[in-house]
Write a structure and sequence with these properties.
By secondary structure, the protein is α/β, with parallel strands linked by helices. Helix content is about 35%, strand content about 20%. It is built from 13 helices and 19 strands.
Length: about 450
């Protein structure tokens, strides 16, 4: 066999990370071993993301780095896939400027990867195979999981919401839900192999549709997953506020293993901006859902996504966002400067916000979020909380790092034998972005 090593570069969201596990699984089944250096690897797969402009720039930067090694080794294969490949202008750019790309495919035909790989290996000619859409989700695909103790599980693909700024419905297609039996089968297998934490993934898990007469919606699916022996933590993302039902909220009161942590993207606190974004809810409805969550589950940690500088956003609109942030008191927030995504409605609007105004507002928002975050973190000081140990700290290899149920990062001294275990930790120092603790011995 000509190619023995592979490397996968993943851009973007957790769903892309999960897809990359499948691509790695295919490569392992084909007899290839992982190579940590993409320049050295004989097969390089770039799994792309279209949500943010920065991801586009990173992708083309990495692609440029591969040119020299591809020219030096004609047997090397460079493969690109994922959301960016669903956009024709990206395909055109690859054709014109990146002749060292050997195989291109999109989000809908990942299940065909072994066949595509075989063809490009044997033909030594570029193959571009991008499907416009798909009505199904391939099941039974292999996976090389990143961790033994936690895992991502896709429950659906695609999105029907068509927010004015978002390219996802055009790259991932319309909503398609996996069959409940397939999801439960996968999670049972993970539990039997020692997995303790699962994160259910979908562009909008709240709109999951199961089978009539069985598990019909997302709340019902969660209740069945909660019964699986061995799974100690259940998470999910992402949720759309317009589809957040009372039935789902009640799960936080009833289910033993559902983490008290909810990622609920608001995007803006202004009704005018929310309407322009095509979000289908207003700030009052959003705040009502948050109030219900906190009533049912007082200790719930709520996180969010916020876009600053959406076309037409006024200073008053931005102040509405600051006000909403102060009311909700998010545990953390992913904040973004609005960036034009070609192919979305907002990309052609003439009321774009100047970059200097975007950045000034962004800095003000970050300041408020961090103030709240620092105050919220102080509540953990001197408390003993369960922490899932995930590995060694990125900044200090002598320390372990883990996550609380509410997704707070905790660093602590300890032995790597604790990795994959949920252990009691006393918090001795609470900071804005992380906690420091000590293992509590029984």
């Amino acid at each position: 066999m000509k190619y023995k090593t592979y490397h996968v570069v993943t851009f973007g969201c957790q769903m892309n990370e999960r897809d990359s596990e499948t691509l790695a699984g295919f490569m392992e089944e084909l007899g290839y071993s992982y190579e940590p250096d993409k320049i050295v690897a004989q097969v390089v797969i770039l799994n792309t993301c279209s949500v943010r402009e920065n991801a586009d720039k990173k992708f083309f930067g990495v692609l440029g780095q591969l040119k020299h090694s591809h020219e030096e080794n004609r047997e090397k294969l460079v493969i690109v896939c994922g959301c960016m490949m669903q956009q024709q202008h990206i395909i055109d750019t690859l054709k014109q400027k990146y002749p060292w790309v050997d195989l291109v495919f999109g989000t809908h035909n990942i299940g065909d990867f072994p066949k595509l790989f075989k063809n490009v290996s044997e033909m030594h000619e570029r193959i571009i195979d991008v499907w416009e859409n798909s009505d199904t989700i391939a099941e039974g695909l292999p996976a090389k999981r990143m961790y033994d103790f936690k895992a991502y599980v896709n429950i659906m693909q695609g999105c029907n919401n068509f927010c004015a700024y978002c390219i996802v419905p055009y790259t991932r297609g319309r909503e398609r839900s996996r069959k409940p039996a397939e999801i439960l089968k996968e999670i049972n297998c993970l539990a039997q192999s020692g997995c303790k934490e699962i994160t259910l993934l979908g562009q909008n898990v709240n709109s999951y549709k199961g089978e009539e007469g069985g598990i019909e919606n997302f709340a019902q699916l969660l209740r069945e997953i909660d019964k699986i022996d061995g799974i100690e933590r259940i998470r999910f993302m992402t949720s759309h506020p317009k589809d957040l039902s009372d039935e789902l909220i009640d799960c936080f009161k009833d289910l033993k293993h559902l983490c008290h942590c909810f990622h609920l993207p608001v995007q803006s606190g202004s009704n005018a901006v929310l309407k322009a974004m095509n979000r289908h809810y207003d700030r009052e409805q959003y705040l009502g859902r948050v109030a219900k969550l906190k009533e049912v589950c007082p200790d719930i940690a709520i996180t969010t996504d916020i876009i600053v500088g959406f076309p037409g956003e006024t200073e008053e609109d931005f102040k509405d966002t600051l006000d909403l942030v102060k009311q909700v008191r998010y545990d953390s927030a992913f904040t973004f400067l609005y960036s034009i995504r070609e192919g979305t409605p907002a990309a052609s609007w003439t009321n774009q916000i100047p970059e200097e105004i975007k950045h000034e507002r962004f800095n003000r928002l970050i300041e408020v979020i961090h103030e709240i975050q620092e105050e919220e973190m102080k509540q953990f000081q001197d408390k003993i909380i369960p922490v899932l140990i995930e590995g060694t700290s990125k900044t200090d290899k002598s320390m372990l790092t883990g996550r609380t149920e509410s997704l707070k990062t905790v660093d602590l001294p300890g032995d790597t034998s604790l990795v994959g275990k949920i252990v009691p930790v006393k918090i001795v120092k609470a900071q804005t972005f992380s906690l420091y603790g000590e293992l509590v011995n029984d």
